[in-house]
Specification:
The complex is a heterodimer. By secondary structure, chain A is α/β, with parallel strands linked by helices. Chain A is built from 14 helices and 14 strands. The radius of gyration of chain A is 23 Å and the shape is globular. The termini of chain A are far apart. Helix content of chain B is about 70%, strand content about 0%. The chains are: A alpha/beta, B mainly alpha. The interface of A and B includes residues 50, 243 and 297 of A.
């Protein structure tokens, strides 16, 4: 009998100890023990870019897991970090929606534990949430937005950008990926190096797609790549045949499409093939918004795109990362989730690393302190490069890579730059 | 022939094909409106259902791609019939569950219900097939008649060298689209014009109570209308799949919007009007996409619709409260 009672006591004490697990292990800040910090993510987890969004969320979780692995199971500054994955896609359109995005940002603002707003995927959505997080003084970091006007004024940007997204006047929005005002011109120069002479430019009328197409067009004219036509499409349209007939008649040998996966890009490729544009040796070039293996499924098989599609992406694709951290990310992802990571999960992982680092350096669960710490990020060792944030919140290093679709995958990754057309040496190696 | 003329000819062909599938959808809008004065906003989604269900049936049968021999002449029509049957039944079920209890309610009630049904169907498709672009295998054999030697020699006798016409193409698929659309429209016409049920439909549309007093089972007539309308939308979805080889869960919304506009343009409730409206809208879409810019196409289409509603609210051929005898 006594033995039993004694055992019960031991059990009770053990349970009590397990209830406060970090008490003896965690390190630096005593005040933070067991306290929770929430990071709200907001990007499409349904709709046309679902595959991308889910992969990015997994990558963010993986970054957190890796961080804990390196710190004896403790979170940054002893905080328990929780990732709250929100979806900003509308169930009726299958694409991002401004109203939902605004609600998501507001949820973060209203939750006292939410310290960082991690999003968005679509630049247009960021225009909505940036204003909200800026007024609330919460740090926001994106895994993918590449519209330049979000962080700085540019030639093709709208008037008043980026100040209109910063009502408080402070910079609170950061990105670790490159921007369209770099990508568009790089793509144009790359097109010249690939031997194209005349391009027909399409876009989806959205901040990202149109901004990119504008940049491409501007640089193409500067470097002597003929622009045979320019058109915007409704992203919900289902029949592009008349438009593509116009492309066929224009004499262009390349179609540049400022699209993402859910705004018409896959349909354009599929119908270009169907109408025989590929047979006529008219090629397609798309930006990073289409750089996903999901593209191949949506156009009805990679064999359609083989040899006729070019895609650019800010940095090496996951499987080609060479840095130690890059390899750890790629192998860790494949081991954990048993699938290939989407290209943008590289940036989701990298941005999550920045978030954790900022929390660590801030040391307190305070929105202003964490924002200040994130702004001060310097010489941060990411997956593809070591970078700092400049005064606009942009990473100081951002290179784009061009890929061809061939052998049923993305191949021939080469660094592309806006001035590569002068020598075209980069493309030939 | 100059490039410009070729582009024009090609746009006429595209406009006609767009009109072809829109006509099949628009007929459903106009028939239902004619009988119970309901704009069935879920109708476009039946078009999407036809696309998805035929895709599923084909995947089950798993025929060789492209279809040939008995698959082409036997399996294809069988799948089409099954698709029509299933889509028609779905529309029938929707009417029985969602609209019938509201038959005597204010008009706004079934209208909002229809919008709700539309959202429900789209959500179901998104779960069923995924909310992404869905490829539809190239089951239908494609051959460009412009590359056919008989066609080439025929035109060369007329002094035209069509091998020079790089832009223009008219394929077996285009012919297939018309080959399905035109006979179906003709059959529907005969059905409404000549059969007893057709006569009863016209009577119910003119005056439901009077028709009832004459011993017509109006509920059965309404059910028939929904079934036939659904079947036409379903086969349109299948033809679309075989024709364009791609679709997504929201495709019914876009097509439905165009088809509904066609029906109103031609005069809602008017069968001839729906068909005429569809071909006009198809032609406008093709021309606007090519000559004005596809970002303006909706503006042009709805601009014309607004002008029409302002100056001739009953549509081109005249809206009727009844399904007109052709």
């Amino acid at each position: 009998m006594r033995m039993k009672r004694y055992l019960g006591l031991v059990l009770l004490i053990t349970i009590a100890m397990m209830a406060m697990p970090t008490a003896n292990h965690s390190g630096k800040t005593v005040s933070a023990q067991g306290e929770k910090i929430k990071v709200y993510t907001s990007w499409p987890l349904s709709g046309g870019t679902q595959a991308v969004g889910e992969s990015m969320l997994k990558a963010a979780e993986l970054a957190l897991a890796h961080y804990k692995e390196d710190h004896d199971g403790a979170g940054p500054a002893g905080f328990e970090v929780e990732i709250v994955g929100l979806d900003d896609a509308s169930p009726t359109t299958g694409a991002w929606d401004g109203t939902i995005e605004a609600e998501n940002a507001q949820r973060c603002v209203n939750d006292p534990e939410c310290m960082v707003y991690f999003g968005t995927y679509n630049s247009g959505a960021a225009k909505v949430s940036m204003v909200i997080t800026n007024e609330a003084g919460i740090a926001q970091i994106t895994p993918a937005n590449s519209y330049a006007g979000l962080t700085r004024a540019c030639e093709t940007c709208a008037e008043g950008e980026p100040e209109i997204y910063r009502p408080s006047g402070e910079v609170n929005y950061f990105r670790t990926n490159g921007t369209d005002d770099f990508q568009g011109p790089s793509d144009a120069a790359w097109a010249v190096c690939l031997g194209f002479e005349s391009v027909y430019i399409l876009d989806d009328t959205q901040a990202y797609g149109k901004g990119l197409a504008d940049e491409f067009e501007r640089h193409a004219e500067e470097i002597g790549l003929e622009v045979a036509g320019r058109a915007s499409v409704e992203s919900t349209d289902i029949d592009f045949r008349a438009l593509l007939t116009d492309v066929l008649a224009s004499g262009a040998d390349l179609v540049f499409g400022g699209f993402v996966l859910d705004s018409g890009g896959p349909q354009v490729i599929q119908q270009m093939n169907e109408l025989g544009l590929f047979e006529e040796d008219i090629y397609f070039m798309g930006p990073d918004g289409m750089a996903s293996p999901a593209l191949f499924d949506q156009i009805g098989g990679v064999e359609i795109a083989n040899d006729y599609v070019y895609i650019s992406f800010p940095g090496p694709l996951p499987s080609t990362l060479e840095s130690e951290k890059g390899v750890r990310f790629y192998e860790g992802y494949v081991d954990t989730y048993d699938e290939e990571p989407d290209p943008y999960s590289v940036y989701a992982y990298q941005s999550m690393m920045v978030i954790l680092d900022a929390i660590e350096r801030a040391g307190v669960a305070d929105r202003a302190a964490i924002l200040e710490a994130m702004r001060a990020t310097t010489d941060f060792e990411g997956l593809s490069a070591t970078f700092s944030f400049d005064e606009n919140g942009d990473a100081t290093v951002s290179g784009f890579y061009g890929y061809a679709v061939g052998d049923d995958t993305f191949i021939d990754g080469t660094l592309i730059t806006p001035t590569m057309h002068e020598t075209c040496e980069v493309a030939s190696d | 022939m100059s490039i410009d003329n070729q582009v024009f000819i090609q746009n006429v062909i595209i406009g006609l094909t767009v009109g072809g599938y829109l006509a099949l959808i628009a007929l459903g809008y106009t028939m239902v409106y004619g009988i119970i004065e309901l704009i069935n906003f879920a109708h476009g989604d039946l078009f999407a259902f036809g696309f998805f269900i035929s895709l599923t049936i084909f995947a089950e049968i798993n025929p060789e791609i492209p279809l040939h021999g008995s698959d082409l002449y036997f399996t294809l029509p069988a799948v089409a019939l099954l698709t029509m049957l299933l889509t028609g039944s779905l529309n029938l079920a929707i009417d029985q569950i969602a609209y019938k209890p509201l038959r005597k309610a204010p008009r706004l009630a079934p209208l909002l219900t229809a919008v709700g049904v539309s959202f429900m169907l789209e959500a179901i498709y998104a779960i069923w097939k995924g909310p992404i672009q869905i490829p539809y295998p190239r089951y239908f054999p494609k051959e460009d008649y412009m590359e056919n030697e008989h066609v080439i020699s025929f035109f060369s006798k007329l002094g035209m060298d069509i091998t020079e016409w790089r832009i223009v193409s008219f394929t077996t698929k285009d012919l297939f689209l018309f080959g399905v659309t035109i006979p179906l429209v003709a059959l529907l016409t005969l059905f409404i014009d000549r059969t007893r049920i057709g006569k009863a439909m016209r009577a119910s549309a003119q005056d439901r109570e009077a028709a009832m007093m004459m011993g017509i089972n109006v509920n059965r007539i309404i059910a028939t209308t929904f079934f036939v309308g659904g079947a036409l939308a379903g086969v349109a979805g299948m033809v679309w799949g075989l024709y364009i080889n791609s679709g997504r869960f929201t495709m019914g919304f876009e097509a439905g919007l165009m088809a509904f506009t066609s029906a109103v343009l031609g005069g809602i409730g008017n069968i001839r009007g729906a068909v005429l409206g569809a071909f006009i809208i198809g032609m406008i879409k093709a021309m606007s996409d090519s000559y004005i810019g596809s970002e303006w196409t909706r503006v042009v289409i709805f601009g014309i619709l607004i002008l029409m509603l302002v100056f001739r609210p009953s549509g081109i051929l005249g809206s009727t409260q009844s399904i007109e005898k052709l």
